[in-house]
Amino acid sequence: MSFDLRHLEGFVAVAEELHFGRAAERLHLAQPALSQQILRLEASLGVDLLIRERRRTRLSDAGKAFLVEARRTLAHAAQARAVAVRAGRGELGSLRVGYVSTTSSAPFLAALAAFQRTHPDVQVELRELPLGSLAGPLRDDVVDVAFIARLGPLDVCLDEGAVLCELSAERFVAAVSADHPLAARPAVEVGELAEEAFVLLAPDICQEWDDAVHGICATGGFTPRVSHYVRELSTQLIIVAAGLAVALVPASARAMRADGVAFVPLEGAGPSITSAVLWRAGNESPVLREFVEGLGVGSAAAHASTAGQDSRG
After folding, report:
1. CA-CA distance, 229 to 61, in Å (whole number)?
2. InterPro entries from the entry (predicted)?
């Protein structure tokens, strides 16, 4: 014969009250039912936990030892129950976040910061991904969600079952050293950068960004003279701060608060950089559900997913 948590709860109540009537009332049980419950527990253990005397009930030595472990077991069970409930609500667990090096930092950081404020017990794991491999990590359950920033159509990032939703759009700005003659200007014409050396992201990191920078410079009537190719936006800003080159970067790069760098808007429209978030429709993670709901993009995301799948025929 085995016993369960109800038997332990009944025994603890009797052990603390040392009175079957009061213990039964505390548990909202009939006294005979509680008495039978304790008898079954003792039979299961093969020892007497209680010494039943005519006028009182007291614990046996076995009962005293069992009480310590019963309380501990009930406490662990209560903790396990609470953890399960919180995990089911998406309040515990982990969120694996993929991102690419071209991801605009402002919407990316804002979304993560807001989620961490409301879900402090969720562990957020960041994983950098090559731009061309977003569909695979989502499909293969390597990441739960991915942030991207693109200049071209977003639906090229969609794989079967993927969901995509736009977060924001922004323009390129000129990044120059703080002591550069253009640093204090409210805006600059692209052509004013024609004689400058440029630091660019390597084309193999993101060819479309390299094409966009060359396209912007072409509107100013020149081809950029590239002195450095780097693999990170942060490295671009270090070189700019040193006065070794200028760069064209997303406006959200201001959020990186790079010392010694001034960000100057460009005159004219220019290409728009769209930041978006992707996830797999079949991912049933409660944490992912909470994250997506926090973005406030549920219905829009479903529409984006349908549109992306339709575009593939």
Report:
1. 78
2. LysR_HTH_N, LysR_subst-bd, WH-like_DNA-bd_sf, WH_DNA-bd_sf
- pLDDT tens-place string over residues 143-170: 999 888 777 666 655 666 778 888 888 8
Task: Collect all residues with Cβ–Cβ distance below 8 Å to 292 and sequence separation of at least 6.
Answer: 145, 279, 298, 301
Q: Is the pLDDT reported for residue 10 higher than 70? A: yes
Q: Which amino acid is at 19?
A: H
Helix axes 5-17, 20-27, angle to 10 degrees: 130
| The one-letter amino acid at 7 | H
Instruction: Give the span between the Cα atoms of 43 and 84, in whole angstroms.
Output: 32
Dihedrals phi, psi of 162, to nearest 5 degrees: -85, 150
What the chain holds in terms of domains, given with CATH numbers, is 5-88 (1.10.10.10), 93-167+278-311 (3.40.190.10), 169-272 (3.40.190.10)
Q: What would the pLDDT profile of 251-260 be if each residue is shown by its tens digit?
A: 888 887 889 9
- The whole-angstrom separation of Cα 109 and Cα 116 is 10
Residue 263, H or E segment: strand 261-265
| DSSP assignment letter at 246 | B
pTM equals: 0.69
DSSP 297: -
Largest CA distance in the chain: 105
Measuring CA to CA, which residue among 159, 286, 254, 302 is closest to residue 148?
Answer: 159
CB atoms closer than 10 angstroms to residue 134: 24
pLDDT tens, position by position, 93-139: 999 998 876 555 667 778 889 999 999 999 999 988 765 556 678 88
Residues 6+ away with beta carbon under 8 Å from 155:
164, 307, 308, 311
Q: Is the pLDDT of residue 181 over 50?
A: yes
- The three-state (H, E, C) secondary structure of 44-77, written as one string: HHCCCCEEECCCCEEECHHHHHHHHHHHHHHHHH
- The phi and psi torsions of 211 (rounded to 5 degrees) equal -60, -40
